[in-house]
Amino acid sequence: MANLLPKLKQGGVVFTPNVDHLMRLRHDPSFQQVYEAATYRTCDSQVLIYASRLLGTPVVEKLSGSDLFPAFYMHYAKDEEVKVFLLGAEEGVAATAQQKINEKVGREMVVGAHSPSFGFEKDEEECAKIIEMIEASGANVLAVGVGSPKQENWICAHKDKFKNITLFLAIGATIDFEAGHVARAPKWISEVGLEWLFRLLSEPRRLWKRYILSDLPFVWLFFKELIKRDRTVGSTKHPQLDANN
Q1: What angle do CA 21, 74, 188 make, to 5 degrees?
Q2: Which of 31, 52, 221, 233 is the most exposed place for a label (fewest CB within 10 A)?
Q3: ∠ CA 201-207-188 to the nearest 5 degrees?
Q4: Is the Cβ–Cβ distance between 34 and 149 less than 8 Å?
Q5: Model pTM?
Q6: Which residue, among 164, 144, 162, has the nearest Cα to 154 in the 3D structure?
């Protein structure tokens, strides 16, 4: 994170892949194209950290949107040039997050907030009004928290329409966390890789399909890849003897 934060002043698009993203990327070519638009991709899953280590391709660190975003605004708290707009969450929640963040940093860093209507991404007129609102706010950083893949798709579809926004952050439920509207898992739960279970138990009706139906096949894919890797390593360590020797 320490290396990433200074770079974000130059702008770009930040996505935070997790297991759900990876499973979607396997079957959704359009989402693959969207992901290619990302300047930075940070791992938002301790499960993926464990898997990468066991597969011999370790990811350096877990950096979710809900960790990156507060680190970002505290890093630039005294930089008057950095101005943020929050897009996401339920009605009034983004405004609450705006107030709380500004209190933390000691200035009006978050210059605007908007909670879009359900299905807004399909309404061209509403999207145009949202873009106009964001541009008028004077923000140069847009943090979008409307869930995946909606937030990534929306950023990719509309980023070139902005003149003032240089940095786009896809931050999932972070706006809810910042507002205190939804409780985030305790740090130790996140560190051991059980934040998904905490969220599932907190919001079972909304998240059960994602974690049980969509993401569970990842376990099979992981073990399949692990077995393949072990066989490859084994054949390398124990090559067949030359019959002529």
Answers
A1: 55
A2: 233
A3: 45
A4: yes
A5: 0.86
A6: 144
The whole-number average pLDDT for the span 230-240 is 58
C-alpha–C-alpha distance, residues 168 and 125, integer Å: 21
Distance of alpha carbon 97 from alpha carbon 118, whole angstroms: 19
Predicted confidence (pLDDT) per residue in 145-189, tens digit: 999 999 999 999 999 999 999 999 999 999 999 999 998 888 888
For residue 133, CA distances in Å to 7, 39, 87, 162 come to 27, 25, 11, 11
Cβ contacts of 112-121, under 8 Å, gap ≥ 24: 112/85, 112/86, 112/137, 112/139, 113/85, 113/86, 113/87, 114/85, 114/86, 114/87, 115/88, 115/89, 115/90, 115/91, 116/87, 116/88, 116/146, 121/146, 121/150, 121/153, 121/154, 121/157
Total number of residues shown for the chain: 245
Q: Edge-to-edge strands of the sheet including 12-15?
A: 40-41, 12-15, 167-170, 141-145, 84-88, 110-114
Segment holding 12, helix H or strand E: strand 12-15
Query: In the structure encoding, which two tokens stand for residue 10, read together?
Result: 């130059």
* Residue-level pLDDT at 235: 55
Q: What is the pLDDT confidence band of residue 243, given thresholds at 50, 70 and 90?
A: very low
